[in-house]
Amino acid sequence: MSKEKQILQLHADGTSNRQIANILSVSRNRIASVVDAAKRTGMTFPELLRLDEATLYRKLYPEKAAEPVQVKPDFAKIHSDLLKDGVTLTSLWEEYTDACKAVKKPPYMYSQFCKLYSDYVNKNKLTMHIHHKPGNKLMVDWAGTTFSYYAADEDREQKCYLFVATLPFSMYCYAEAFTDMKQRSWINAHIHAYSYFGGSTRLLVSDNLKTGVIQHKKYDDPVFNKSYEELAEHYRTALLPARVLAPKDKAAVEGSVGVLTKRLVSRFRNKRFFSLQELNEAVRAELKAFNEKPFQKRSGSRYSVYTEEELPFMNPLPLFAYEFAEWKVATVQMNYHISFDKQNYSVPYAYVRKKVDVRSTNNVVDIYYQGTRICSHKRLHGRQGQYATNIDHMPKNHQLYSEWNGDRFKRWAESIGPHTKEVVDKLFAFYRVEEQAYKGCLSLLKLADKYSSSRLENACAVALVHIPTPRYKNIRLILEAGQDLPKQDESKEPTEDSANKYTHLRGPAYYGGGHNE
Q1: Helix/strand/coil for 477
Q2: I want to staple 416 with a disulfide (CB 3.0 to 4.6 A). Which of 132, 209, 345, 420 is the partner?
């Protein structure tokens, strides 16, 4: 049953557009367009559902049904003609378009023509006749055979994986060993390969490994890793992953991997390496001999064919090599910073609680929101927990703190007194990041406005006697309780006035007598 019919059936049953989208894995926009097209027909849903699929499609989309049908090429004849010398798929497509114009019918474009021919070959399990052009493709892959070197510091054998890149026209190869097949190694392998070749190709053909291709469905465009896409853009090449489980799409590199790894295994079987650099130096020496070895069935070698016939067609390399960039997703925190690699970078405060994309190189951190770069910072290295803050990213009421620094707070405290300065110094020493102490210092020093500078200095002196690192709250409580005020000297003899100040004395008249005896 077609998607249109399924959508109409579920809609007629009272299913919501959101539920239909989840059930059929289609967008809600498509669901709405199908429902609107059904309403425009003037027919009821039960009437439309009784139609066969072809009639239903014509009813829903009459303008598409009126479009002329493209002429289907005779792929059996095309496949047989390709066996002849000098016949190419391009020349056969041109003949096909001329024939379509003669009968006034639309032809398939060249890309679709090639795709249909490829499908025909795969369906009939035939061999496609591919004639590679110079500088057109670079095929890359990891070898299945692993190598190793002895890591003396860990007292063990370190496994290594061999990256191989091949130009299918000349079969010129590049190879390098890595300790893992992670994204950084994958990108660096391409950078080194382009440097070795001295140019880039129009197409880059890879396998469907996750470090390069995130998703590759049969009828959808492949989804690439962002770092891999950036690499391709930097070297002006287009990514063309091989079909899933179709090694013939990159047969050149598959063959080179097999021949080269057999050679390396044979040459390295009695050798032991003690570092990755030593292993790669040996690989590079064998690679040079492999590329310069004469062909058996034609003149020249991989190296001579590359330099004489292919190199002039390679794209020139950019002025600077690509720098590996890592992409991650982060959430903007309430303090309008993101945490990346245990460091903190500011973002305009309007993006608080939003998810942003973070692109980082060794030197720069760029932050994107919905594909638009919103800010950039120099990457922080060293001590964890550092802050890179742009004043313009702060709300207006927070920008007050940005005008302060530790020296300014210390000068202010010193103007009040030495004990106040000592308390402020202890506050700055307590926090890991200087900015964390600003709020407490500002609150502490503002107490002088309410209680006077002398009382604040006395309160700090009292606090330092009893508390190792006094805080704002400790000083405030001392001031509120008056513990900073000087106490009365109890050693002095009380005077008569002071003794009688709070007493009631009964004289002789109270007892009815005129005198005491």
Answers
A1: helix
A2: 420
